[in-house]
Amino acid sequence: MYDVTTGILSVAKAQRLGLKRISAEGIFLEPGEMAVMDIDGNPLIISTAGKKMLAVHAERVSDVDTIIAKLRGWSIPPFGITMRIQLHVPRQESEFVEKAWQLGLHVQVSYPIAEFLALLGAQIGGENLVAIQRNK
Hints:
Strand order of the largest sheet: 3-6-5-7-8
Shape: globular
Number of helices: 4
Oligomer: single chain
């Protein structure tokens, strides 16, 4: 369903590579394309529909509506959308998942692994970003 690699990248390297920043508006990722987002505790939502992949750095539950609107622009109905939500704070699960289910989306939820949480601590200096690469 998803062939995505995530990791940590320095701000300087992201700038040298000219990588786009993922925002609450989201960006479509093509195969082989990489983008970055700030490490701030907000969820990363990766949605797929057909061959389209949209990465969103969600700031609030209403960003789920933004995802639907963007994918509907490609004539994709909600039941054709699969959403993976990477949460950093477990209490966020109910609000994001409930909203997605209300809209008829297929949803997967994952929590950060211990190694990823350790990497979050590296952000204290503000020099690191989460990198997301679409492999296929």
